[in-house]
Amino acid sequence: MATFLYKLGRLAFRRRIYVALMWVVLLVLSGVGAASASSAGSSFAIPGTEAQKAFDLIDERFPGSSVDGATARIVFEAPKGEKITSPENRATVKKLMDALPAGSDQVGQVPDPYTSNAVSADGSTAYIPVSYKVTSLELTDDTVTSLKDIAADARDTGLTVEIGGDAIQTVPGGGVTESIGIGLAAIVLVITFGSMIAAGLSLLTALIGVGISVSVIAALAGVMDFDPTTSVLAIMIGLAVGIDYALIIVSRHRAEMANGHDPEEAIGRAAGTAGSAVFFAGLTVVIALVGLSVVNIPMLTKMGLAAAGTVTIAVLVALTLVPAAMGFAGRRVLSEKGRAKQLERLSTTGKPNMGARWAQFVLRRPVAVVLVGIVGLGVVAVPAASLEMGLPDNGSQPTSTTQRKAYDMISDAFGPGFNGPLVVVVDTKGSDNAQQTAGQVADAVKNVKDVVAVTPPLFNESGDTAMITAVPKDRPSSIETEDLVHAVRDAGGKVAADNDVRVLVTGQTALNTDFSEKMNDALVPYLAVVVGLAFLLLMLIFRSVLVPLKAAFGFLLSIVAALGAVVAVFQWGWLADVLGVEQTGPIMSMVPIFMVGTVFGLAMDYEVFLVTRMREAYIHGEQPQQAIVSGFRHSARVVTAAAVIMTAVFAVFAVFSGSTQAMIKLIGFSLAVSVLFDAFVVRMAIVPAVLALLGDKAWWLPRWLDRMLPHVDVEGERLRATLDREAHHSDSGPDAGQDWNRGMAQV
Questions:
Q1: Which alpha helices (DSSP H) does 620-708 contain, by range?
Q2: Which residues contact 464 (CB under 8 A, 6 or more apart)?
Q3: Interatomic CA distance for residues 693 and 687, integer angstroms
């Protein structure tokens, strides 16, 4: 691997014009594809769950019901002292209904609230549950604008009118957030390199990779049915890993130039050594993200695949475009002053640099460092014991939004449960008396505790399927309502067993409950698959059993601590005002497992970058503790900069995402604190302390296993041996001294 990447790096350096042109063409083509692609559609499905089976049955037996279509709940409240049932207010509501023609191109059903029991008992409030034939992302701007204009016209008559549902949901945007993240990354790169050229080229190559990734996702959005947040997550992860990988390659390239190699040889060696670490680190991230497919939730699978594709492009950019960029920069990427600083920083005879001094501090007190690190992360992790998961509804929207206002109006006038009714579907094909059986189901559901209302069975045209609506007592996202979903299913199941029919419970609340449970059930097998594959990969890289075990244990520490921080902020409300979190509540069900997959891969990045340098020193004959110091001397500065950049990029999305982009804000915060804990507490403190305590045992690998595992040469040991032999033969020639002097003079 190292030899191949060495040759690839030199080839990209020599053919830099063609390589750069190839990436620019890819950027243009992907941009054209994105511009000409159809708009994205987003369908939410959870295969195998009862709620999904019920949705599929409704779609089959009730043609035209558009169960996947967008919905809008228009809520009216009469002025104080008036009734929504007065002739004037009835006329206003009727006018609004006429402006939303049922059965048009996109509008499905517009029930009359006065004949569908959608008027509150006190007569002050009514609502119209509008259904659409297409998803919220497929609604045209004219349709959404018309809905908002109709509501505005109704407000002019004195009514309070608000709109709930997903028909007017906002698509996550970007621009300012990404710009802030790029600006912070640029500052860190300039400080790290002390060179505008090196920093600028690293940033430029990363941005090209992100641009291609996001454009490809946009081009495939209509075909792959990507969720709108997918592109934002791709930008977030692509920026972080793209800049980090470029930083690693450029830093090693400058170090090789400082050691006297010409730019082409330096980039070849950088690609063969640091490039190998980038390749395997990226592969670990890809494994973790692709592993999300084991959960078998299409939306999560697509998000994982899109993010994995973004990381893959970042790796390819680092291994080809970065060497080409170094070819354009030539010797300007490292000035004479910069070379002197590099040599001073990496010198083993002069004053130790900050990384070496930190390693020496850890080595003097390894037990204390391990205990403080574990106890500290343990304290932060305490809130994770109170983790509650669910999917957001309009009740989690900021109080300033029309969706939240509509939600609160429904809760006040009808009761919290009206915001998340359950739909009981009765398949009566096996029943001799469908009407009687459906009635028995309705009676059984009515007798369930905390069910406040049940509608009569509504049959389809063929009379073989009925729908019953049950209204819970509590709000949709409450634990009580989750328990109620199971109680209703149990009650319906007893009737189904006695009458040989099927009874299924669905609705958005039931779907959310099934989703959360599936996430919980999938977490352990997902961890087993991802950690198992990554363990094998790390064992290949480090030729060790204990180092991968330590890496996995450290990851678990950081992830639990990060979950504790997430619960404290987004569930308990600590520092919520600082981050702009307007509404606290259960953590989105998909976030913990997505965080586990993403952070595991990113955590292994720093493990690979840092520990490969230690192993490199160890196999060159240094003692275990000396190898740890050498690893920190060479890598601590770069790993610190990379971690700061990644943390900053994620934190920007957490702080500056709009209040309506709750998922982006939550994922940004969770990834930021995860990287912060893992990089600076686990990898920079606990890892060297544990390695110091293990000594030579850290690098132990059974001989039989060593013979079975292929040698991937991540550290480039065989590559360096080959290059050194070639250099020795060339140096022994009559002009060797002159060639060396000429090379050093050029540097």
A1: 624-656, 662-677, 687-694, 703-708
A2: 61, 427, 428, 429, 434
A3: 10
Dist. CA 55–CA 49, nearest whole Å: 10
> With contact defined as beta carbons under 8 Å apart, do 108 and 133 qualify?
yes
Q: CA 103 to CA 265: how far, in whole Å?
A: 69
Backbone angles phi, psi at 558, to 5 degrees: -70, -35
Scanning 15-45, the segments in alpha helix (DSSP H) are 16-36
According to DSSP, the residues that pair with 472 across neighbouring strands are 451
Condensed to tens digits (0 to 9), the pLDDT of residues 658-680 reads 555 677 888 889 989 998 999 89
How many CB atoms neighbour CB 324 within 10 A? 27
Looking at the DSSP bridge assignments, the partners of residue 375 are none
By the 8 A CB rule, do 715 and 615 touch? yes
Closest CA to 525 of 281, 296, 282, 280: 296
Residue 497 CB burial class (10 angstroms; 0-12, 13-18, ≥19): exposed
Alpha-carbon distance of 361 to 106, in angstroms, equals 67
Whose tokens are 């069910």? That residue is 451
556 SS3 class: helix
What are the beta bridge partners of residue 131?
71
In whole angstroms, give the CA distance from residue 489 to residue 510. 10
- The residue behind tokens 């934190």 is 651
The model scores a pTM over 0.85? no
CB atoms within 10 A of CB 707: 8
Alpha-carbon gap, residue 250 to 267, rounded angstroms: 8
Contacts of 11 (CB under 8 A, 6+ apart): none
Query: Collapsing DSSP states into helix, strand and coil, what is residue 572?
Result: coil
378/595: higher pLDDT: 378
DSSP secondary structure string for all residues of 189-223 = HHHHHS-HHHHHHHHHHHHHHHHHHHHHHHHHHHH
Distance set, CA 91 to CA 102, 116, 594, 635 (Å): 18, 17, 49, 73
Within 13 Å and on the Cβ side, how many CA atoms surround 599?
A: 34
Q: What are the residues whose beta carbons fall under 8 Å from the beta carbon of 340, sequence distance 6 or more?
A: none
d(CA 648, CA 191): 15
pLDDT (tens digit per residue) in 605-653: 788 878 888 887 888 788 989 999 888 888 888 888 888 888 888 888 8
Q: Which residue type occupies 400?
A: S
Burial of residue 675, with CB atoms counted within 10 A of its CB: 0-12 exposed, 13-18 middle, 19 or more buried: buried
Kindly tell me the burial class for residue 446, based on how many C-beta atoms sit within 10 Å of its own C-beta (0-12, 13-18, 19 or more): middle
